[in-house]
Amino acid sequence: MIDFATQLTNLLGPEFSREGLDPNLAEVRRSARPDLGDFQCNGALAGAKQKGENPRALADRLLESLRGQSLLRETSVAGPGFINLALSDAALAAQANRLAEDPRSGLVPVTQPLRVLVDFAGPNVAKPMHVGHLRATVIGDSLQRIARALGHQVTSDAHFGDWGLQIGLLIISLEDEQPNLPYFRADYDESMFVEEPPVTMEDLDRMYPAASARMKEEVAYRDRARKATAELQKGRAGYLALHTHFWKVSKFALEREFTALNIHFDLWKGESDVNYLIEDLVTRARESGVAVPSEGALVIQVAREQDKKEIPPLLLVSSEGSAMYGTTDLATIVEREREVKPDLFLYVVDQRQAMHFVQVFRAAQAAGLSEESRLEHIGFGTMNGTDGKPFKTRSGGVIKLHDLITSCRERASEKMDEGGFGKELSAEEREKTALMVGTAALKFADLSNYRLTDYVFDMDRFTSFEGKTGPYLQFQGVRVKSLLRKAAEQGFGEAPIQVILPEEKALVLALDGFNGAVHMAFDKRAPHFVAEHVFTLAQAFSTFWVASPKILEEKDDAVRGSRLRLARAVLTQLELGLGLLGIEIPERM
Ligand code: ARG
What domains can be seen in the chain, in order of their start residue? Predict the structure, then answer.
């Protein structure tokens, strides 16, 4: 099925062409002035300018052959030459019924599916996840869901940070704590490996911040960590064994958190997984002259003449001989080109890393590893505390994902109590629902802002059942579910949708906007278009509900059946739309 905006654009396009104008000028959008029409097209203004004539006269001519179209009730020209289009009731009802029958709720897949690689979350082994990782996780997951819904072939990868200095730091810190472990012996070999990890997640959480602080004070300590990192990367067996242990311990904790958030990756790869490609990558880059020596290190120059600000070179090999953050990113591109062959790479990473990605993408192009045009950094702003700075815990530390999830769930549970929700649920169901609500609060708060906008973390507002929040949206869905359950209990069936009330018309128009919103969200790599859409839909439903509160008491079978079908269509779309944001609707609450 085709949404109204597209149908109307398709009607007007040929009229623009007939006038010798670009048919892209025919773009039709929902009207900003619903009193004048349901949709509008502003292309006559630009068209008339090109032709050097009066826009109103052009608009009138463009509309001539549209008069009498069954789709339209009325057409008019307003102001300097805005075209207004009002839909006929029959067209609205027919579209509503098509939407209700469509399990995809009007969403039309792309005609040319792409292979899309989404690199998101990027948690680091040993280092706690901070709110930047949380945003990357929530936005990246939504983008993978949106891309899949549009028919793209998606591969998502968590791209663990597990090959940098933090591992070297952990190694030396563990060596100081447990010097007798076999992994530190010069003659270590695999037969000495002990299955049981020498550390727990709690140990790592304790060790890393301490070691990191000490490194900033003591040059010798930092040098030791760097040396350990270089040795690890060169393949020292005992260190590799420790790396495996750290990885397993971290992964276990992260998997638990991501599962709680209902977030999944196709690949759980890390920087270390491409180590086998680095030597060859570096050799080729050096031999071809793409990489050049600089102060004992090896770099790739990526500055360009037209640059407005200085773009420093990418550090390929440090003076200690270590591969750097950019090096593993380049090697990962090589592997992805071989194994996934993406048409598009999306890197969902904090905007503060924008420079890193400019360097990596240009270096990848220069070294012939990929094409810059297929590599995109999808940056985002920060989640701030009330002080306007990146969110911290009360003690000033970075928040742990686990604690964040827990506090969201607890706050959601309190709000459910306050609002009298979930009274009839069993203790177990209630716990599950509280997690669903808390997660929805967190995700929707993040995704309802344009990704590059910073926002303030305000758990109290996020978990409210009123306002523009995840829980409010879930509540609208739960309302429909309960209505449909009761209707089924009373044996009431559905009937073809009739558009009688103005609130019904508004609801049908809202439903019809889904397809456009999802495509826009992918095109702009911005899930807030979907968030905005589901919120508009939920509000339109809520208004309809107020206007027609007693659906089940309606005596006329046709009218009741129509409203039930309309409500079900709303639920389908709410579920799909919220699903694209990674939010589920509970059965009851
Ligand atoms: N681990 C990185 C960090 O914590 C994020 C990784 C982002 N992805 C990438 N391909 N560089 O900053």
Answer: 4-87 (3.30.1360.70), 165-378 (3.40.50.620), 401-451+461-580 (1.10.730.10)
